[in-house]
Write a structure and sequence with these properties.
Blueprint lengths: L1 H25 L3 E4 L2 E4 L8 E4 L6 E5 L2 E5 L1 E5 L4 E12 L3 E11 L4 E12 L2 E11 L4 E4 L3 E5 L3 E5 L1 E5 L4 E11 L3 E11 L4 E12 L2 E11 L4 E12 L2 E11 L4 E12 L4 E11 L4 E12 L6 E11 L6 E12 L2 E11 L4 E5 L11 H4 L2 E4 L2 E4 L2 E7 L4 E16 L7 E14 L2 E18 L5 E17 L2 E16 L55 H10 L27 H4 L5 H9 L3
Organism: Winogradskyella sediminis
InterPro entries: OstA-like_N
Protein name: OstA-like protein
């Protein structure tokens, strides 16, 4: 019995040995067709030469790959083949590579193609001079400049590239250019997925179209949908407008862009700049929406105008531009400031309207506080609505109109609680060199005025009523008051004028609310809570094409013939040194926006 069992075991081992030997033999390169097979004295090492005939090419197969050529030299001891003339290598139904020459190691499963190389897969076509193909890792690599064509995305060129077959992903390095019928993309690193057309940009990158230019140092672009996300010094140039922010979103089909956190929108044509922390820009409509600490700056030669509100909207073409600021809007320039629920600016007409929203009424405890207010060189003006008219060409204030419940207050400079006051139904003011010099109060006009002599001594306090009042202002002080259709009036010594009567009805001095600087525009704002932008991941350099795994396979391929040249190692790519990514923001910064930004910075922003 023991002997019988031993014989059975020996028989099984022999069968397994034959099976594995057969399996190993089947793993070698196999000749499926050859028109002519021979040896040649010109070829050392006893290699076989295969030639095609008139009907078909030479055909080899190896582990699911087919190799076709006009001529081949096969080194059987190293399982290595050199293929010449109209060479084609196919892997399954998806990968097809053609070239003038291909060498292939069956042991290392490494191929090198040279001369008009074309690699095609279902979504793209790769062309280059020399291409290396690792069948184990399913990767193709070139470092002699290559071109990838994808019908829906365009043509991509780069100095170095790698194709990951299983992931349907290209990785392009150095001088990367994607040319599309609608735009041209330039970057230093690009990861591109052929199935969905997703492109990931790393390093200084630009996307230039007919109507826009995008810059970023980290970005994503969907080449099928023409939608992108951009970060790291990102900006979009729309004609004469530049949008910058920590994170930008762009939809080319809709001509739409949005930005999040630390946003600046610069309009070089209109010399204006808008800041905030969330913005939407519609190019076709030439409109913009911005919120979260929104600030609009109109740059003028002598003095810039700042408008701050919860939300800003800028609409219309440059020749018909409208700016709307609403919810606690505030205005500041060196000689003027204002507050209102809403501010409306018609740039073409030079009309600025300070408006009280209709939702506030006389029964609202805060209605009086919410009335529009304007300060100019010591004068405070309030009313239900205030209009400022300026000359768009000279940028000088021309006139002022206060509609309904007009009230002008000027603090008496020599007394602590004295206020010169004029009120009426409507007020019209005229400016000279941006200073108020003439005021007309019409209908139900009332006044309280502190009269002083040339030495500044108080003569008396005048209180009057009339149909209308004309006021002349010189050096920020009321110089002359003319009463038209006067009803009554008198001048009282200070001691005879009761303190309870020194304020006209609806008197409301709001000097503590006046912004005295750009920073004051934000003093009543709640704390700013900005969203955290996760951002795109940092660039991870790819592992070397010839890594430890490839080196081990190549060395293993040469062990069977230690006295011969290891042919699997003779055509491996030389390692390429890739420069680290560097920011080029300073060089890429639009020269058109620099002077405007310098003006803003000079004024404290």
């Amino acid at each position: 019995m023991p002997l019988k069992r031993f014989k059975q075991l020996l028989f099984i081992l022999c069968l397994l040995s034959v099976f594995f030997s057969f399996g190993q033999e089947r793993q070698k390169i196999t000749v499926k067709y050859s028109g002519n097979t021979s040896t040649s004295p010109d070829i050392k090492e006893g290699a076989l030469v295969f030639l095609r005939d008139k009907s078909k090419q030479v055909h080899f197969i190896h582990k699911g790959a087919d190799l076709f050529c006009d001529k081949a030299i096969y080194y059987e001891d190293q399982d290595y083949i050199e293929a010449f003339g109209n060479v084609a290598m196919k892997q399954g139904d998806s990968i097809n590579m053609v070239a003038k020459y291909i060498d292939y190691s069956g042991k290392a499963q490494m191929a090198m193609a040279r001369g008009d190389v074309v690699l095609t897969e279902p979504q793209s076509t790769l062309k280059t001079d020399t291409l290396y193909f690792d069948r184990i890792k399913q990767q193709a690599y070139y470092n002699t400049k290559g071109t990838v064509v994808r019908d829906t995305s365009g043509t991509i060129t780069s100095q170095i590239g790698r194709y990951y077959i299983n992931a349907s992903k290209y990785q392009f390095i150095q001088d990367v250019v994607l040319v599309n019928s609608d735009y041209t993309l330039n970057t230093e690193r690009l990861d591109f997925f052929t199935e969905n057309g997703f492109a990931y940009l790393f390093g200084p990158s630009t996307i230039v179209g007919e109507t826009s230019k995008i810059y970023c140092e980290r970005g994503f672009y969907d080449t099928n949908s023409d939608i992108g996300h951009f970060q790291r010094n990102a900006k979009i140039d729309y004609d004469n407008r530049t949008v910058e922010g920590d994170s930008l979103y762009f939809d080319r089909n809709k001509n739409f862009a949005s930005a999040t956190n630390n946003i600046t929108v610069t309009d070089t044509l209109n010399k204006s700049l808008v800041k905030g922390h969330y913005a939407e820009v519609w190019r076709a409509k030439d409109s913009m929406y911005i919120t979260k600490r929104a600030l609009a700056i109109t740059v003028q030669e002598q003095d810039s105008i700042y408008i701050h509100a919860d939300t800003l909207m800028v609409t219309g073409k440059p020749e018909n531009r409208i700016t709307r600021a609403y919810y606690n809007a505030r205005l500041y320039k060196s000689d003027m400031a204002g507050k209102a629920d809403s501010i409306h600016v018609n740039h073409k007409e030079g009309l600025t309207q300070l408006i009280n929203l209709s939702r506030y009424n006389s029964s609202d405890a805060f209605a009086m506080k919410r009335k529009p207010v304007l300060w100019n060189i010591g004068n405070q003006m309030t009313g239900d609505t205030i209009h400022l008219i300026s000359n768009p060409k000279t940028e000088q204030l021309d006139s002022l109109k206060v509609f309904e419940n007009a009230f002008l207050i000027n603090k008496d400079t020599l007394s602590e609680e004295g206020y010169n006051q004029i009120k009426g139904l409507r007020l019209t003011g005229l400016f000279r060199n941006n200073e108020l010099y003439n005021v007309d109060i019409v209908k139900n006009a009332e006044t309280i005025r502190y009269l002083r002599n040339d030495e500044g001594e108080l003569i008396g306090i005048q209180k009057s009523k009339s149909g209308s009042i004309n006021v002349k202002i010189i050096d920020q002080a009321i110089d002359e008051v003319r009463f038209i259709n006067q009803i009554d009036g008198n001048i009282f010594p200070e001691s005879d004028f009761p303190k309870s009567g020194r304020r006209l009805r609806d008197f409301d001095w709001r000097g503590e609310e006046q912004p005295l600087s750009v920073e004051d525009l934000f003093k009543d704002d709640p704390p700013l809570d900005l969203p955290i932008i996760q951002g795109l991941a940092d660039y991870v350099p790819p592992e070397a094409f010839v890594d430890d795994n490839v080196t081990e396979r190549v060395e293993e391929a040469g062990k069977a013939t230690p006295k011969k040249e290891n042919k699997a190692a003779r055509n491996l790519p030389i390692k390429t040194i890739v420069k680290p990514l560097e920011s080029t923001t300073k060089e890429s910064d639009s020269t058109a926006t620099k002077p405007l930004k310098q003006i803003i910075k000079k004024e404290g922003q």
